[in-house]
Amino acid sequence: MKSSSSGCGEAHPDRASLERFMAGAASSDERRLVLTHLLTDCPVCREITGPLAPFGRTALLQPGDAPAESGEPEAVAATTSLLLTRLRDRQRAIEKEREEAPRLTAELEGQEQAHRLLLVRNSARFHNWGLTELLMEESFNSRHNDGHRTLQLAELAVEIAERVDGAVYGDSATNDLRARAWAMKGNALRVVSNLRESGRCLNRALKLLELGTGDPLEEARVCEFFAALRSNQRRIDQAVRLQQRAMRLYRRAGHRERLGRAMVDLASYNAIAGDREFAIELVQKALEMVDVDRDPRTVLAARHNLAVFLQESGRLREALEVLGQARSLYETLGDRRNLLRLRWLEGSLAKDLGEMKLAEQAFLEVYHGFVEETPLIAAQVALELALVYVETGREGEVAPIVLAMEKVFRAHEVEEHAVTAWLVLREAVERNRLHAAVLKDVAARLRSVSERPAR
Asked: Which domains does the chain show, CATH number per domain?
């Protein structure tokens, strides 16, 4: 039996050996070796054996019973039967909970968050693996339309994941689930600009992963969320390194599409760092790896980002062409945030083309769309609007924008670097020294919070 290196860093059986084992055609020695490995709950091998199992996807394994030491076929067969029985039982339990999850979610809908949290903490029927998965999925899918809903669903997922019984599903696998929930909450906090709490949640996710199965895909997901946070914190070098780590994990696991998705975000970080030409190359390569039918949101993010990079590089004709190709996807998906970003890009292009009235209209729409939920993004748009006013001789209209954004910043927990940058702008307004160079300097300080359509 050949073996290869998994993302976990351990040797594991090759696909042919796993297929023979699941078909009952492996030799006694091969069965013993495969069984010993499967009892470690190897995530790479789970992905191969899952579709081959007679009951569907494999359940998560908890190491416990050692395979028979005897080389007798009867002993190996008995241990194999025990393993498969355990897999069946756990998989059936998970599938049953997944069937119950939509009903439980509907029961939580329409209630105040405080009451929902009370329910999931105190009622055992909500301590459901499938419900945790569904809440995380809905949280992630809500991020383009409603940041507050994204955070509320992630909070519920954390509360439930912390109460899922590790004795039923295995402590290691349960810690993976909890890590995923905390990571989702961390990302949701980032979406609503609470970067400090986002970091705390992501650090909690990392600690749980240390107690988990060692699944490289779980680590890759947390790396990506951490990279997004570091980007928002203007720590771009760290963002790039974390995103590259996630990509290496996806590449080792053979996940081409996930690798393509991760490459879209890596392109954004390189653009923020000033290397737009490399960012353009990365996003073009990513588009070759992601299927629009299977993952239209990532394709939209990639096309939007490509148009932004081209616009920022002065290649306006190419940017307009890419935007034209992506327009039907914007309309089909209809995400509020992506539609706002479309208007933002249209405003930037209009400004570059000298259509200041059209640019002003677009920036005002986007500013009001972002200001309450994501103030750092609203600030970035406000700067572009202020630049339009300065370039059209309307400097007096900048001061109200600056004061309004300062109030918003004080009402939210905004990172210090953003507040400091904004104070520079306020001082320039108060001293009547406002000009385009000041606005561009402040924009450069806040560039790391200029979001692209996220996955």
From this structure: 3-91 (no CATH), 101-326 (1.25.40.10), 352-449 (no CATH)
